[in-house]
Amino acid sequence: MSYDPSNVFARILRREIPTRFLHEDEHCVAFHDVAPQAPLHVLVIPRRPLRSLGDAAPADAALLGHLLLTAAAVARQLGHPEARLVINNGAAAGQTVFHLHVHVLAGRALHWPPG
Description:
Layout: H1 8-13, E1 23-24, E2 28-32, E3 40-46, H2 61-77, E4 84-86, E5 102-106
Antiparallel strand pairs: 1-2, 2-3, 3-5, 4-5
């Protein structure tokens, strides 16, 4: 399946949907989730149109590392040095927007196994 440029995250990146970015650099942006599942629920998305983690290639290693480092930094900046990072990879894993994104969850006890 190919990347859909009309997905909500692509529209946010094009600034068609107003969003207050918590972090913005040449590789990614971070913003609060509109349907938070924890007191802190931030999404970190790459600017590059990458459908899912399963579509990443070895050449994407630096970008993937940058997304994780950014997720941890944003959590720390918002007062949560410990956070759960989640990447849903495909519909069966719970991915609903097919633009790679990292969920940053914190602010309550996060039990295992999840959902």
